[in-house]
Amino acid sequence: MRFDLFLLTVAILSAPVLSDLVLPKVERRIDLTSQIVRIATSLKVENAGSDPVSEVLLAFPDRQANNLAYLSATLYEGKGKGKTSAGSLPVELVHPKDIPPSLTIYSVSLPKALGKGDSLMLDVLAVFTHTLQPFPEKITQADIQLVLFQESADYISPYAVKVQSLTVKLPDARIESYTRLESTKVHGSEIKYGPYENLPPFSYSPIVIHFESNQPFAVAKELVREIEISHWGNVQVTEHYNLVNDGAQSKGEFSRLDYQARPYVRGASAFRRLVAKLPPGAHSVYYRDEIGNISTSSLWGDSKKTELEIEPRYPMFGGWKTAFTIGYGLPLQDFLFELNGKRFLDISFGSPMNELVIDSLFVKVVLPEGSREISVSVPFHVKQRQETKFSHLDVVGRPVVVLEKNNVVPEHNEHFQVYYKFCSLSMLREPLMLISGFFLLFVACIAYMHADLSISKSSASYLAKLQWEEVQATIQQIHNVISRCLAMHEKLEASLRDLSRTGDVQACKATRKSVDSMLKELSKELKLLVAFLQSSPQATQILPKVEELIAKERDLQERLMAKHSTVVDCYEKKLGGREIENRIASHQQKITILRQEIDDIMEFIDEI
């Protein structure tokens, strides 16, 4: 660090004079009360040469210029309390010759050339980020945060300075150390250097200040702001934050108990809450993260402002990260206007968060579908492109203007404008789509309710369906008749069992006579049903199985009758049991086979 300062000092002191301009008086004030370093410089510029001068050069060391986020120059007229602003002046980066390589030069263009002997007052505001360096770089939960700041006590300028002074404002009166030069004074939380007189061009006197700063070092690594315009009366703003505490890194373990007991001692370097200043009239405000809604927030406001205080789920120590989303609605009439046949959105560019540094900011303005001739007006340089977003009921999508800027600070929170043309009749597109959709739905429902979708009774398919249903009913009747026949067979077998138990031959003959009579009646029913199947073309495939079933049942019936006659004759002749079994063995074997075959055919018919 000291070697770099030495090289910078040598390079600057060896630089030549670039102009006849002189600075009779320079007053600088450096604000270090937050993580953002603001250097306000008041310059009195005088032309001591003979030629008019149209620009004033501002010099910054490269290590500062790399972190320069915002630079503005304002011309003032008058003196003291009567001093009035004559407007901001354009500032641009230039590369003049004979400038030390360690310096970056910006040019302020004057509204009119400064003549010989003339003077003017110029206020310059330079805002820097990531300039305060934590030292030590890692601290525990109980430690306070100390930071280093490097600057030059002399105002670095390509012009000679007659009188200059420097005031450094610190956040707290606790100062670990600071560079002591001639005419250095400390008053509370302020350090004053100077006044110093008759400084040559590019004077450089390095100073280092080591002090306590427990202010929030909140840095948004990425912020995506989506501003969606609805011509139905609302501007919806959604902000997605990826936040980190860029202060001294936290080391060691975190104790929730110690933090809750003494948060300002055991968590002095952490920040617990952030405040967002929303536009007046903001409504429907929400604050959530990936888990869901975060209730640790409060909202208050009046007709002039709306403030949202949010508190993360955990205290943010150095190096800790969090991600969350803030959303709110704004009244359309306060931000959308018309000019020369065009509509334009007039809204702030940056984040509403207090003292937030944004490394990468993306502002997406979602315009209504059908917008055309889109143009953007931003008071500073940004990258610009266009995208398309599809939402509900969109056909070609909504045009999206994307503005990208790095290293954003609160000073960038200026208003910008997005101009576009939009036909008011296009607002009726989505309502007409909804009305047409519901109308067609209702028409379709009415048509469905009144339409006869049944098959015509004269069609071939309908007649075939009816014939098949009749065939199914007939097969079911045949199935029932066969089941009744089988029941008669079982009754005949039961009479033989009773005969073997009681020996009553007459009762057995009576049972056979009644069964025989019943089977004849069932046979007549089967003939009628089979005749119907034979006449129906739909029964062509099933008819062979039905006929096979009836034939098997008749064969079974004959076998059972033969068995019954044989057993009765044997009982009348008073033959023994073994003799009876031998005589009916052939019948019994065939009966068993037929019953199994009938059961298989019945199962097949059941499946049909």
Strand-helix topology:
Elements: H1 2-13, E1 21-31, E2 37-47, E3 53-61, H2 62-65, E4 68-77, E5 84-89, E6 91-94, E7 103-114, E8 119-128, E9 133-134, E10 138-139, E11 146-152, E12 160-169, E13 175-178, E14 184-187, E15 190-199, E16 206-212, E17 218-230, E18 234-245, E19 249-250, H3 256-261, E20 274-278, E21 283-288, E22 297-301, E23 306-310, E24 321-331, E25 336-339, E26 342-348, E27 357-366, E28 372-377, E29 383-389, E30 398-408, E31 415-421, H4 429-450, H5 460-502, H6 505-535, H7 543-572, H8 577-607
Parallel strand pairs: 1-12, 10-19, 17-27
Antiparallel strand pairs: 1-2, 2-8, 3-7, 4-5, 4-8, 6-7, 9-11, 11-16, 12-15, 13-16, 14-15, 17-18, 18-24, 20-23, 21-24, 22-23, 25-26, 26-31, 27-30, 28-31, 29-30
Helix pairs in contact: 5-6, 5-7, 6-7, 7-8
Task: Describe the fold and architecture.
With 608 residues, the chain is an alpha+beta fold. Helix content is 29%, strand content 38%. It is built from 8 helices and 31 strands. The chain has helices at residues 2-13, 62-65, 256-261, 429-450, 460-502, 505-535, 543-572, 577-607; strands at 21-31, 37-47, 53-61, 68-77, 84-89, 91-94, 103-114, 119-128, 133-134, 138-139, 146-152, 160-169, 175-178, 184-187, 190-199, 206-212, 218-230, 234-245, 249-250, 274-278, 283-288, 297-301, 306-310, 321-331, 336-339, 342-348, 357-366, 372-377, 383-389, 398-408, 415-421. The chain has an 8-stranded mixed sheet, with no helix packed on it. A 7-stranded mixed sheet has the order 21-24-18-17-27-30-29, with no helix packed on it. A 4-stranded antiparallel sheet has the order 9-11-16-13, with no helix packed on it. Strand 25 and strand 26 (342-348) form a beta hairpin. Helix 5 runs antiparallel to helix 6 (505-535) and helix 6 (505-535) packs antiparallel against helix 7 (543-572). The longest helix has 43 residues, at 460-502. The two termini are 97 Å apart. 27% of the residues are buried.
